[in-house]
Amino acid sequence: EVQVVQSGAEVTKPGESLKISCKGSGYRDSSYWVAWVRQMPGKGLEWMGVIYPGDSDTRYSPSFQGRVTISADKSSSKSLTTTYLQLSSLKASDTAMYYCATLLLYKYDTTGVPLYYFDYWGQGTLVTVSS
Amino acid sequence: QSVLTQPPSVSGAPGQRVTISCTGGTSNIGAGYDVHWYQQVPGTAPKVLIYGNSNRPSGVPDRFSGSKSGTSASLAITGLQADDEGDYYCQSYDRSLSGSYVFGTGTKVTVL
Question: How far apart are CA B88 and CA B41, in angstroms?
Answer without folding.
Answer: 9
